[in-house]
Amino acid sequence: MTIGEGTRIHFMGIGGIGMSGLATICRERGAIVSGCDARPNELIRRLQAQGASIRLGHHPDHLEEPADVVVYSAAVSEAEPELRAARRLGGRVMSRGAFLAELAADRLLVAVAGAHGKTTTSGMASQLLLQAGWDPTVIVGGLMRSLGTNARSGAGSYLVAETDESDGSFLHLAPSTAIVTNIDREHLNYYQTFDRLVEAFQQFVAQLKPGGRLIRCTDDPLIRRLLSHPRQLSYGFNADAEVSAERVTFTEGGSRFCAVYNGRPLGTWTLQVPGRHNVLNALAVIGLGLTLDIPLLTIRQALAAFQGTRRRFQVMRLPGDIRLVEDYAHHPAEIRATLGADAAVGRHRLAVFQPHRFSRTQSLEDEFAICFDRADGVIVTDIYPAFEAPIPGVSGERLAHLIRGHGHRWVRYIPKQELTAFVSRIALPGDTIFFLGAGDITEVCHELAERLHAPAGAAG
Fold first, then answer.
1. Is residue 119 annotated as part of the catalytic site, yes or no?
2. Final residue of a domain: which of 305, 335, 368?
3. Integer Cα distance of 447 and 426 in angstroms
4. Is 121 tagged catalytic?
5. Which of the following is catalytic: 24, 118, 181, 334?
6. pLDDT tens for residues 192-237?
7. Which of 13, 224, 355, 375 has the fewest other C-beta atoms within 10 Å?
8. Is 181 considered catalytic here?
């Protein structure tokens, strides 16, 4: 698909991180962008500042001006009158995943897939190709702090994209390079069984273009056993990985390690993002750089320059020695990794968690009950539904009860409307307070920062 000056594109659900990225690229290519969403947010305001026409809510009247293409997100119901009107008008109507595939059709696609680590890994990969001077197109599921955006249109031949397996949309893609970070029990509301989820990842790898390459994390036993390709490179901490790390040390703000490639030392590397999981993400990108024959010095400089993405261990330092950590972690494995990435010694850790989706909370409740062990205290609030209908008996209050039943010494359920006031009352000097979740828990984090007189945008 040729997107150029004057192409009219309408995005339904334009405020989502993936949809806003696509809309940004289209605007930068000269398209006339319109869209709609349920409520305003920062991403919508950014697009409006770039000239996009965006309305709140959904209504067939939004299509009074004919669009060449209408793109809709997974959050938009097939029964939505606006979407049905778009189909009746006879123009091109495409899902977000199908539209991304068309944007990528004439590029060399580096696609990052996996249950966890996709945003940081795709951000690091984008930083690498930018550092190399390759001017890539970028679509990342978070605002990169070094770029100030989640997407850019580049003139180079490469496109780096964070994929989405949640609705199977990554199966529209035919990458030149696929990075698969891990497979976990996620999105079973869509796949119904874990076997079907695994089969989707196998199909994704099978769709690599001729001559393409798989970069896979063999610390993950499922990937090690079930995902392979004739041209592949492995990374991980395990002894058999082709790209691995030794002598890893962690600081409050990052890490330092020695990289090894097939037994050959690659020197010392530093990261500005903390945690063992981010060392693993960096190993994937070192592997990418090696397969693309990018000079080792450039790879090292790119990873050292990567500042992370918003809502991924984003630290705010408040007066009175209180720190807030905002993180998108919404799966038990991600929560463990985020709490484990905090290298500060002697601080009291309080986790404030907003469960995301009723279906995920129900299917993973046993794992959620045991993933907060590194926190001194846990506050659970109401479930963010993400367009799901409530499931009887599934609630934030029940999850707090399960965490308490696991033996955690301090657990509270606090309704969301009471959360800011409650946390501000109990916050003490020396506290690190984690705000965890993929919903709108970020608003509470910033409300608290304002209440405690901190500059909400100040990152540590």
1. yes
2. 305
3. 15
4. no
5. 118
6. 898 999 999 999 999 999 999 999 999 999 999 999 999 999 999 9
7. 224
8. no
